[in-house]
Every structure is written in C-alpha cells, then in structure tokens.
Amino acid sequence: MGLVRSFRRAHAFSAALGHRGFQGGTMSLAKDSKKDFDFIVVGAGISGPFIAHELCKKGASVLMLEAGPHFNRDTYPCKEIDSNSQLYWGGGIELNTDADLGILRPKVVGGGSIVNQALVDRFDKIALDSWKDVSGADFFTQDKLAPWYDAAEAEMVIQEIPAQYRNGNALLFKEGFEKNGFNWAPLVRAQKDCRFDDGNDCIECLSGCRIDSKQSTPVTVLKKAFELGLVLESQFEAKTVRWAPEVVTVMGVNRYGEHKAYRAKKIVLGAGAIGNSRLLLNSGFKKKLPALGRNFYTHPQSMLIGLYERPINAHKGPLQSLKSNDATFRANYFKLENVFAPPVAIAMLVPGLARRHLSVMKRYAHMACIEVAVRDTNPGEISVAGNGRARIVKRLNSFDRNTQTKGFKAIHQIFKATGAREIVDGRFSIGLHLMGGLNLGTDPVRSVTSPDFNLHGFKNIYAADSSIFPNAPGINPSLTIMAISKMAAAKLK
User: What domains are there in the chain, each with its CATH number?
Assistant: First the structure.
C-alpha cells in the first residue's frame, strides 16, 4: 500500500506541474535529477551504445538508462543458475500467453552482445527486399546499407573459429551436412583472441566473457562513449515517458527503490521489442500510435539432441562455429546451427520425467545438438497487464509449424547419417531475436517508427533497435542492429 500511495502522490505532483503535451508520466522529478540532457538513451544493449557513441562524438550530452546491472570481465556470474537470474528478465525466462514459447530477454549492460554467441551476419537480398516491400523504406537494400555495415564492423574484431578448434559437435554437423548434400558455412563471430588452444572450456559465451574476447558493446563502442562523457545509470528501470514538443521526461525507479525522473530534448529508445513497447504502452502512446506493440516476431528455435556411443563433448570448445548455408533451407524459412548449452539449459529442453530424464542427462558428454531456427511469419502482439507488465501473445501458425517440421526432418537426417543411437526431440521452442512492436514504415496507421527513425507524430522520440524491424529476417540480427543504429545516429542532431 505504501508504494501505491507513493505513486498516487507522484502523479498528483506531476499533474500540479502543469506540463503541456502528451501526458504519460506518473512520477515527479527527483530533486537530484534536475540536469537536462541533449539526449536520453533508454537501454544499453546493442543499439543504445552505438547511438550514444555517435552522439557523444558530436558533442551532445547523453544520459543512458539501463534496467540491468553493469558487469565487467571480473564480475560476470560464473555459475549457470546465477547467470540466468542475473542477466535476464524474469529470472531467466519469460513465457508467452500459451506458455509454449520461452522468451529470453537480456537485462544487463551490453544486452544481447553479452548473452549471445556474438554472431555477426549481414542480411541477404531476401530479407532486405521483404523489409523494403513491407515498410516502404527505400534504404533497405544491400548497396545502401553496405557503408553502415562497414562502419559497424570497423568497431570490432570479427573472426571465424579456426577449423582446428571446431569441437566434436561441429565436426558431426559438418559430416552430416556433407553426407546429405547440404551446404554449410563457418559462423562469423565478433571475437578477439579467444583461448582456443586452452580448450575454451568455460561455457560462458552465453553469460558474458571473462577474457573480453567477445566484442560486446561494453568493450567496444560503450567504452569509447564513456571516454567522450557518456553518463550511465544502470539498474534504473524506466517506467513511463512524458512527452512535450521541447522536452521529454523519462521516469522510473533506481536500484534503491527511489523514484527519479530525467529530462532531455530528445530520447532514443533502445530497450528492445518488449521493453520499448511496454514503456510506451504504459505511458499512453497507444492512442496516438495504433500499431504500437503489434508486429512482434522472434526466431523460434528448437534444439534436437543426438545421443552417441562415443563421447562428443559438445560442451568443450566453442559452442557454435558452423551454420547451414543451403538455399533450400532458406527458401523453406529455416536455418540450422551447431549449438550447445550448459547442463541446466539442456535439462530444460530434454523431455521426460524422473528416471527417463535422468538417463538422458547422464549422457551429457555423449550428446550432439543441432538447432533449427524458424523465420516466423505470424506476427504476435505485446500488450500490458493491469500491473504494467508485458503480456506477450505469440503463436506459430500452421505454416511456421510446418517449417519447423522441415527443419526437424533435416536434423534427423544429419544425426542418422552420423551414427546417432537415439534422437531426442526437445520441442519446447525458445524465442530469441525479439523484433518488432515499433515497426518501421511510411504508414502511421500500420507502423510506429518513420523512415527518419522518429515515432510518427513525435519528432523528438527515436528508435533504431530490433523493435523497428518490419518482420523476421531469418538471420542473426546483431550486425544489422548496429548498422541501422549508425545510420539513425547520423540523422540525429
């Protein structure tokens, strides 16, 4: 009840201030938060740091707000349970309304660049043509994005896993592909000086990097932005936004439970599909932006496990190094990757109970694993519940489930060709690469973000992260988020 009363008092105070314009805020300005900034960047994942760096280079004063903690190479949680609880929203996983899709959403400075495998791929013509057709934006072409891809790649070191360090899982992947006539390719990763010759047995690519090999935003553009004067407040959860033509106020709660508010001439939303949608929905923007929260996509991913007589040791060495590069797979809306995960994650995916489940997990070292990722076609929607939390409606339609089945069939062929004794179908899907909710387009009724990267009707609110994606590209999105962020930042003054 005390918290409710505090919010009511804050709302009353805010109303008494007499701000004009779009009213979405419920908290007062804190006494120690009176400094105005040129820009506030909400979210310190992939997009936010790239944009903040470019703005700081222009001499702008920039405040970055991030709900998650700020770790470094010495403080990342080293245990799987700890990393799940400390690096993700929902203590590790969130669920859609049907509870059949697990949503992994990072909550940490660095965002997806911390908890992913640092895969950096440029989008192909198929993805960009689709975006251009859906959005009406003429810059979604390989030629027009090329200089922005170049600029993003220049901020980091990009490497492939040397062939001699591919682990047993990757070797099986390659063997199975070649026996079935499928095309494969090395994964391109943002990494530097990974300890391959030490066996790389840390299994920490999904929870930071203790040697700063992974080229995450904290060790690349964010570090540079700090040197140029960027101010970061981590563990600050933005709750609402109040808009006026000359000033935007972001209100939220810090790590100590204190209600604070910050003002800037302009804000940039970089909290991802769910974070951006939730913030704007809780602030009342749905009335002006009818498409807000819609067109939500993921790349639903399912891991299948092959059990072998001999040890595979998929947990040793780089967890991902190869991918499918097959035109037939692409035409059928799926891709395959060799992948693995620490024991707790694998245990969640293995079906069965009690002795059956235990018998499979005892063969952890004998497991090979391949993942199918679906380029989903059925847009979901993000809304907010009465408590202000995100409500995620996301389902696979019959086309997407058929796509998933095609991927499963290909994986079964690979496992059978390489001598698997048993195949375990871990058919619980994980929603990665969260996209949409603020989709970019020329039509203000069917889209939220304009081709100039500002929200329709709000010239001082911008977005350039995965929330603006018009649909699911079917390709790892990190590099494209970086490139688009570079492009958007060039337009901001």
Answer: 2-491 (3.50.50.60)
